Amino acid sequence: MVRPDGGPCRVLVVDDEASLSELLSMALRYEGCEVRSAGDGAGAVRAAREFRPDVVVLDIMLPDMDGLTVLGRLRREIPQVPVLFLTAKDSLEDRIAGLTAGGDDYVTKPFSLEEVVARLRGLVRRSGAAQAARGGSVLAVGDLRLDEDSHEVVRGTREIHLTATEFELLRYLMRNPRRVLSKAQILDRVWSYDFGGQANVVELYISYLRRKLESGLGMPPMIHTRRGAGYLIKPAEPAEPAEPAESAKTSE
């Protein structure tokens, strides 16, 4: 877990349980990370402003404000920072609320340190903060462009702002245009693990991309579902010309 410049990855751990925070911080330092911790939301925002973390571990239940509010403030400081939620809540509604708010992943308590480290490693890799021996390039499908170096996404003339996970999912689709990708393939490539059996996370993120790339822009669809098979991306079909109005018949 290193930065592109070879320096240690910076992790901000936000949890009001001091013993848990210290244990997790120790495990991350063992992995070579530089770690800063905070026990409440206000402290998390201050630490993010000063520390500029590459990834954040964020408890969703904090004494001064909830994790979703903290997430919004963190993203104002560092727009693209990936966030892993820690939560004692394991209902589907709570998981979807965290992801919808912009979280990139979550772990429910109690959890293993190995699992948290593995998921953080995946987030860092997907966000581009990890060192990677790959050349940058621009992917293009129809009027959609994705810059792998700058992480800029543009459709037509409209810039699209994506989370780290949304970006990685779109990149995977665009690297395989017109190819149907199954949920299992997407989970393996984008999340690097079986998401606790929750394959519907793929459906959720596909819906986010469709909203940002298609319906939110009032533009024709590019991402398509093949029932029972998976998803593919292809250039949007050109709009069909409107039928000419039938000329009125004249009587002789």
TrEMBL record:
It comes from the Bacteria. Residues 136-235 bind DNA. Keywords: DNA-binding, Phosphoprotein. CDD domains: REC_OmpR_MtPhoP-like, trans_reg_C. InterPro entries: CheY-like_superfamily (IPR011006), OmpR/PhoB-type_DNA-bd (IPR001867), Sig_transdc_resp-reg_receiver (IPR001789), WalR-like (IPR039420), WH-like_DNA-bd_sf (IPR036388). PROSITE patterns: OMPR_PHOB (PS51755), RESPONSE_REGULATORY (PS50110). This is Response regulator transcription factor. It comes from Streptomyces virginiae (Streptomyces cinnamonensis).
